[in-house]
Amino acid sequence: MELNADFSKRVVIRPEDYHWRPSPAKGVERMMLDRIGEEVARATTIVRFAPNSQFDAHTHGGGEEFLVLQGVFSDEHADYPVGSYVRNPIGTAHTPHIGPEGATILVKLCQFDAADTEQKAVATQAAAFEEVAPGLCQLLVHDVPGERVRIVRFAPGTRLGPHAHRGGEEVYVIEGRLQDEHGSYPAGSWIRSPDGSGHAPFSDDGCLLYIKTGHLPAVADGSRAAE
C-alpha cells in the first residue's frame, strides 16, 4: 500500500477529510496520513483506541514515535496521559492497553535512524517552554542529525516571517488554528511540506503544534534528503 508516498509533494489533511479504518485489533481504528507498506509499514497515523481496548505484544522493528492526543495510553512500562511524547527506538517492545476513557495518539512507525537509540517519554503539558520570538514559545523534545521535533505554541496574533524548511516540515495542529498564505488549519489538521518548501505562518486565535523538521526525503524511495 502506498498513501501520500511522494515526499516531494505537499499534503494537507483536515478533520473533515478523516476516514477511519479498522485495525487488526478489536476496538482500534486508524486514520492513515501516509504509508508505504502493508500491515508492517513506514507510516504516519492517527490511532483511536476504544475504552478498555488492547493491542497484542509487538516489537518495533523500525522504531515508534507517538504523541498522546486524548485520553491515557498505557503499556507495561507506564501510563502516558494527554501531551505525552514517547519514543521507542528500533528493537523495543511493549503491550499497549487502554483504560476506561479510551485514547487517541499520533504515531509514526519505521522512521528511526539506526543510530537514534534514545528511549524517552516527555510530559509536554508539565514542561517549561522557551520563548524564542515575541508570541512564540517552544519545547524541544528531540534533536538528532536529520530530525528535530518540537511542541510549539503561537500566542493569539503571532506572525512569523517567510522561511524555508531544509529537509521538509511536518505539522500536526494539537489545539487552536494555524494559518499561512496557503490556507487555514484547525485542530486535528496534518500538513506535510516537502524539502525546500516555505511559508509565513501565523495564528489569529493562537495554536499549539507538533512540528518535525529535517526528516523528509526529496524522493519517495525512503532515502533522507541531502544534508
Give your account of this protein's structure.
The chain is an all-beta fold and 227 residues long. Helices cover 0% and strands 54% of the residues. Strands 1, 3, 4, 5, 7, 8, 9, 11 and 12 form a nine-stranded antiparallel β-sheet that branches. It is globular, with a radius of gyration of 17 Å. The two termini are 29 Å apart.
Outline of the structure:
This protein is mainly β and 227 residues long. The chain has strands spanning 2-3, 11-13, 21-22, 28-37, 41-49, 58-59, 64-74, 79-81, 84-88, 93-94, 97-109, 120-123, 130-133, 136-144, 147-154, 158-159, 163-164, 169-180, 183-186, 190-193, 198-199, 202-203, 207-213.
Mean pLDDT: 93
Task: Report Rg.
Answer: 17 Å
Helix and strand sequence: EEEEEEEEEEEEEEEEEEEEEEE
Structural class: mainly beta
β-strand amount? over 45%
Query: Sheet bearing the most strands, described?
Result: 9 strands, antiparallel
General form = globular
Count of discrete alpha- or pi-helical segments spanning 4 or more residues: 0
Low-confidence stretches: 220-227
Cα end-to-end separation: 29 Å
What is the helix content? Answer: under 10%
State the total count of DSSP E strands: 23
